[in-house]
Design brief:
This protein is α+β, with helices and mostly antiparallel strands. 22% of the residues lie in helices and 25% in strands. The protein folds into 2 domains: 1-39, no CATH class; 44-103, no CATH class.
Length: 106
């Protein structure tokens, strides 16, 4: 890891190795500390969005298609309609199927 920092491939690294629930090694490399805070971005949505756009352009799906056409488990969706007297969510059948258009708005 230090070599990556020395060769300027990364600015710094924190490594943690754990086994059986116990920390075996915790090391910093470069200007970082063991309690440095990192912002981690999820790239799942943009990658999925690009893949879906490619499939859309190939005519594999349309915006108004029900999601259940491709993922059958979405056929019987429940929607939030308030709280039960005990504070748990109150759910009811969705009045209409979720569309691909709605799914793609993330």
């Amino acid at each position: 890891m230090q070599r990556l920092v020395d060769e300027k491939q990364v600015a710094g690294l924190v490594t943690l190795l754990a086994r059986h629930g116990k920390i075996a090694s915790l090391q910093t490399h470069g200007p970082l500390k063991t309690d440095s805070i990192f912002r981690i971005y999820s790239m799942t949505k943009p990658v999925t969005g690009v893949a879906m756009r490619m499939l859309y352009e190939e005519g594999k799906w349309q915006l108004n298609d029900p999601v259940s056409r491709y993922i059958p488990a979405f056929a019987r969706l429940k929607v939030y309609s308030g709280k039960n007297p005990d504070g748990t969510p109150k759910l009811e059948d969705s009045p209409r199927p979720m569309t691909m258009r709605e799914l793609m708005t993330h």
